[in-house]
Amino acid sequence: MFELSQDHEDFRAMVRDFAEREIAPHVAQWDRNHHFPTDLVPKMGDLGLFGLVVPEEFGGSADPEGGPFTALCVAIEELGRIDQSIGITLSAGVGLGINPILTYGSAAQKERWLPDLVSGRALAAFGLTEPDAGSDAAATRTKATLDGADWVVDGAKAFITNSGTDITSVVTVTARTGAGADGRPEISAIMIPPGTAGFEVAPAYDKLGWNISDTHGLNFTGVRVPQDSLLGDRGHGFKQFLKTLDDGRIAISALALGLLVRMREEAAAYAQERVAFGRPIGANQGVSFKVADLAVMEETARLLTYKAAWLKDQQEIGKRSVAEVKQAAAIAKLYTSEAAVTATRIATQIFGGNGFMEEYPVARFYRDAKILEIGEGTSEVQRMVIARRLGLSS
């Protein structure tokens, strides 16, 4: 259960080689320039990264018995070890872009959108968060009204990944489409291609970290799309996205694990190379204990991440429950994201003044780490999910 298959390890080696060759030499400059490398996405597609959880009929390579979600986490970990922005590009591209269409889309929707998304010729995004509705996603204000054969969408979304690239082909957004019998808002998911009249992509955010990742606010003013743009059943959009978030939390855990691996590597190497008072600083317990702590955090995160990924793969073949996956995902995401923030602080401290300089990778990872405690559900939300599973009200 806690040992990856040889196929997974061989796949890891392939992704690591790709990341070292195609990404590592460029990330510092991309980060400085806030540049999203559009041409990298089809290369990732050629490697099969966007098709890991997608059946062959849609151009993917998923084998339900072979641990496809675990393979995705391996890929995200290895990309995240080199750069967190590139890791989240894959994580969001699959988890928030492809998966909702694959899971809830009609045959026509899958046929229209999946081939380009799986190949890396296009990216898709999912708009849930709003300026006034973050963790309280049920407070969605974006509205969609049926007018003849069309949905007319009005509202706004915030912090949407992969939503403004040159190759973004569709954004799925949650919107109020009415009210249920209990008076609560009926929330549905609607697919909107960029370029649709009234769909405005706001300028890219000026972010603390993830500078290579594409992130925008979105505005919808009288956006008109055909009725068959509804993704899944009407009124089920919120439930659909909650399930999507469970998977995404495991993916974020894998992303944080990649960061933890890199911080342990960087700190250990620097502690052996940096000399002070006539000997390597790693010879001092004050430093060596810090590196040991990084190793412990990395190992713990690895066990939690791949246990959750294994449970997800087992759930897909009917051997584990949704509730088990939800709890494991929340635990993994909570621990690994908070450990990642701590690890970057420790690594930066070991580097001393050099850790504050952008020429050293620990500075970039320090900036990138904080969002891991926020995206895909804050640490507070994870604690709420865990507590409820333990029978505690919150």
From TrEMBL:
The keyword Phosphoprotein does not apply. Its cofactor is FAD. It is an enzyme of class 1 (oxidoreductase). Residues 235-390 form the Acyl-CoA dehydrogenase/oxidase C-terminal domain. Keywords: FAD, Flavoprotein, Oxidoreductase. One of its GO terms (molecular function) is acyl-CoA dehydrogenase activity. Its EC number is 1.3.99.-. The keyword Oxidoreductase applies. Pfam families: Acyl-CoA_dh_1, Acyl-CoA_dh_M, Acyl-CoA_dh_N. Residues 125-223 form the Acyl-CoA oxidase/dehydrogenase middle domain. It comes from the Bacteria. Residues 5-120 form the Acyl-CoA dehydrogenase/oxidase N-terminal domain. Belongs to the acyl-CoA dehydrogenase family. PANTHER family: ACYL-COA DEHYDROGENASE, ISOVALERYL-COA DEHYDROGENASE, MITOCHONDRIAL-RELATED. This is Putative acyl-CoA dehydrogenase (Putative Butyryl-CoA dehydrogenase.
